[in-house]
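ok so I'm stuck.
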Amino acid sequence: MTDLLGDLNPILLPVFVLVIWTIIMLCWMAATRLPYIAKQNWGPETGERTSELAAKMPKEIQWKADNYNHLLEQPTAFYATAIASAMIGLGDGLNLYLAWAYVISRIVHSVVHATVNVVMVRFMIFLVGTICLLVMAGNGAMHMMTG
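replied:
not stuck anymore, here's the structure
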């Protein structure tokens, strides 16, 4: 068992945590949207175009859907960067700390976005995560160029 644990790349854990968080946001979105839709007696055709459905939702309900969509945007670059980092031997040390900082920033961003939605607070949290991702990618690129 020790050999197996020793072979695992630690940077993959933040990847799994962010995927799990994304699914949690999906459930939160469904738990708020579906009861509202049922209460309005809207049929399935109401959601034919996401933008039209979003326009009919109270903003506090729509925030969860907006955040879920955000978790399917920039984090895809995080997943690629983290997996590539694991493949080239940069899955620990600074990149691991940056990966955890990125995941924590996305979780905090989600909570802010889905509850109070203060745009400048969200932006600052997003910026911190983006800087973490940029440094991770830069570390990988430098490692590849310098061998």
